[in-house]
Design goal:
Layout: E1 4-6, H1 10-22, E2 27-29, E3 34-37, H2 41-49, E4 56-59, H3 62-70, E5 85-87, H4 91-99, E6 107-108, H5 119-126, E7 135-144, H6 159-167, E8 171-181, H7 187-196, E9 202-205, H8 208-217, E10 227-230, H9 233-242, E11 246-249, H10 254-263
Parallel strand pairs: 1-2, 1-9, 4-5, 4-7, 5-6, 7-8, 9-10, 10-11
Antiparallel strand pairs: 3-8
Helix pairs in contact: 3-4
C-alpha cells in the first residue's frame, strides 16, 4: 500500500493520520494551510453580541467553529440552545460544533452517507428555512499568501451559498474567525516535497486553496508522476490542472479514503 500524505491543517491532519494508521495505512502529515488567530478579534465579539438577530449561522469549517467559540465573550448565552440554527457542510465541522456545545438537534448538515459534502449539498437541506427577511451569519476565515501579506477584508467563503440565500430573499453577513496562511518550509522540507511528488506517495488533497499554496511553495516542481486523492470534484479539477498525473475523487470519510488508497496499490 502506498504512503498517504495528509495535507489538512495540523490539528485535523493529526487526527486523519492516526485514523489511517489504525487501518494499516502508512500516513504522514504535511499541512498545506497554517491556521492562525483572527486578524480582528473585535469583529467576532461583536458577532456574538448580535447573534439574536440571526436565524442561522453557517460555519465553513471545523476551524471556523472552534475559533468562533474560543472567542465567546465571558457570560454570553449560547443561543443555539434556544432558536439559532447552525449550518455546516460536513461531518468534521459537525463534530467540531458538538465539541463546542451546540446541541445536535440545532445542527443542519448533508447526510453522513451523502455523495458530497459541500455548499450545494447543504443548501438542499436548509433552503426551506430561508424566506424573505431571513438573516444568516457566515463564519469563515481570511486567506493570506506570500504574495498577499495582509488578509483580505472580507475573507473567503461560500459565495455560491450566499447567492442562493440572497436570491431567496435572505440577507447574509460575514465574520472572520481565523486566518489561513501558506506553509513555511525550509530547503530540506522542499526536498522532501520534491521526492514525494515522484516516489509513489498518494497526496490526499482536501482544499483547492491548500493545493494553490503547495504550487506557490514549489513553483518549479513537476507533478506528472504524482498521485492524488481529491475530496471534491473542484479540488480534483485543480489537481489535474496543476499537472498531477493521476487524480481520483473520494469522499472525505475514513472508509472511503482507506479504500481509495488501497486501490492505488
Amino acid at each position: 500500500m502506498p504512503r498517504a500524505i495528509v495535507t489538512r491543517p495540523a490539528k485535523e491532519a493529526q487526527a486523519w493520520v492516526a485514523d489511517l494508521r489504525a487501518h494499516g495505512v502508512d500516513a504522514v502529515s504535511l499541512p498545506l494551510i497554517r491556521i492562525a488567530a483572527a486578524p480582528d478579534s473585535g469583529a467576532v465579539e461583536r458577532a456574538w453580541e448580535h447573534l439574536d438577530q440571526y436565524h442561522a449561522s453557517m460555519f465553513v469549517s471545523g476551524n471556523a467553529a472552534t475559533h468562533f467559540f474560543a472567542q465567546q465573550p465571558p457570560g454570553s448565552v449560547n443561543p443555539w440552545r434556544v432558536s439559532l440554527r447552525a449550518w455546516v457542510t460536513g461531518p468534521g465541522s459537525r463534530n467540531a460544533l458538538l465539541g463546542c456545545g451546540v446541541p445536535a438537534d440545532c445542527i443542519d448538515a448533508p447526510a453522513a452517507d451523502g455523495a458530497q459534502f459541500d455548499s450545494e449539498a447543504l443548501w438542499s437541506v436548509v433552503r426551506s428555512q430561508v424566506q424573505p427577511g431571513t438573516r444568516v451569519l457566515i463564519v469563515r476565515g481570511s486567506a493570506v499568501s506570500e504574495a498577499q501579506t495582509t488578509p483580505s477584508a472580507s475573507g473567503t467563503g461560500r459565495d455560491w451559498l450566499t447567492q442562493q440565500i440572497e436570491a431567496a430573499g435572505g440577507r447574509v453577513d460575514f465574520v472572520v474567525a481565523y486566518e489561513r496562511r501558506a506553509p513555511v518550509w525550509n530547503a530540506a522540507e522542499l526536498d522532501w516535497v520534491a521526492q514525494a511528488a515522484c516516489d509513489g506517495s498518494v497526496w490526499i488533497l482536501s482544499s483547492a486553496e491548500g493545493l494553490a499554496y503547495l504550487l506557490e511553495a514549489a513553483p518549479h516542481q513537476p507533478w506528472r508522476e504524482a498521485r492524488a486523492l481529491a475530496t471534491h470534484p473542484r479540488i480534483a479539477a485543480a489537481a489535474r490542472k496543476a499537472g498531477f498525473g493521476r487524480v481520483q475523487e473520494t469522499r472525505p470519510v475514513l472508509a472511503d479514503l482507506v479504500a481509495s488508497i488501497e486501490s492505488e496499490t
